[in-house]
Design a protein that fits this description.
- The protein is α/β, with parallel strands linked by helices and 339 residues long.
- It contains ten helices and 14 strands.
- The chain folds into two domains: 169 residues, Thiolase/Chalcone synthase (Peroxisomal Thiolase, Chain A, domain 1, 3-Layer(aba) Sandwich); 143 residues, Thiolase/Chalcone synthase (Peroxisomal Thiolase, Chain A, domain 1, 3-Layer(aba) Sandwich).
- Strands 1-7-6-4-5 form a five-stranded mixed beta sheet, sandwiched between helices. A five-stranded mixed beta sheet has the order 8-14-13-11-12, sandwiched between helices.
- β11, α8 and β12 form a beta-alpha-beta unit.
- Bound molecules: coenzyme A.
Length: 339
Amino acid sequence: MTATPKGFATALRSATPVANARIAGIGGYRPRRIVPNSEIVERIDSSDEWIRERSGIIERRWAGDGESVIDMSVMAAEPALEMAGITGSDIDAVLVATVSWPYQTPAAAPLVAERFGSKGMALDISAACAGYCHGIALANDMVRGGSAENVLVVGVERLSDFTSRDDRGTAFIFGDGAGAAVVSRSDTPGIGPTIWGSDGAQWDVISQTESWIDVHEQKLRWPHIGMQGQTVFRWAVWGMAPVAQRALDAAGVTADQLDAFVPHQANVRIIDAMVKQLKLPDGLAIARDIAYTGNTSAASVPLAMERMVRKGQIPSGGLALQIGFGAGLSYAAQVVVIP
Ligand SMILES: CC(C)(COP(=O)(O)OP(=O)(O)OC[C@H]1O[C@@H](n2cnc3c(N)ncnc32)[C@H](O)[C@@H]1OP(=O)(O)O)[C@@H](O)C(=O)NCCC(=O)NCCS
């Protein structure tokens, strides 16, 4: 093997300091239009009572004019940047987690970066409801590895564009919104090891109903996101609590040392089942943002945490266990220091 030139090795060593990273700021944006269950029930032959009981959802938000994926990302990111004490030109990288940006290409992230005057690296993450937690993991590795100092991570969805109003299994679940976090270099570690993975054997359990090619060639109607509800429910309840436990173990944290549990806001019954399986202590702050926000996929974890931080329900500097899971199937969980 040829010897590595000395200059290359020296340059690499100095280019990759091992730093610490933390979430330095968090923000959220909820669309103006509130959609109560009563607006949805007729077309799916349902009732407000059934939806509340089976999902915990009372209302959700649907985006309108001036609330595009880009607009919502920017409005969620602004308070996150302010909290982190940085401006747009300080952003080295933008990671946008979304499944509802309506362009095959280019990604949404470069436009978000542009709106902040940043020319930093920018790309989208397609990991559905797990996308934001993947983004936090990647941002952590980038900052720790020395390839960025400040990474803007956005979870954003306009799922109302991809939801069938007539689909009994999904019409009442999905909502729109955006959450954002700034991951910055810090003196102390603030993001624990991520436990993540996928199960492509269950690729079709939550998916767009038809491919764009089928839609075009067969002249099909606009596709939407379909879901095998019961399969997803079982996978989430039985599969995700052990993943969350592994994230706790990897971080060297026990449940009684947590200040918050912020799971993906899929369904309140899934949240309750996870709390039980993880034996989380009574009185621990549990995110239940789903009641007023619905399931906003990639936006759900940062939106839920943003609400808790803004309302002073969880302490800055405390520890939160967060987990995202969904289409792919894919999942990611980590313990983070609350900004
Ligand atoms: C979608 C979900 C709430 C449906 O609940 P469910 O109990 O599994 O519903 P089922 O499909 O088994 O149907 C049970 C009954 O409710 C009825 N039903 C289904 N959807 C309904 C609706 N929207 N309104 C009223 N009744 C409904 C069915 O007709 C059935 O009636 P029957 O017992 O008389 O035959 C549930 O499967 C779920 O929460 N899954 C996980 C979804 C999720 O979290 N997705 C996000 C993952 S990221």
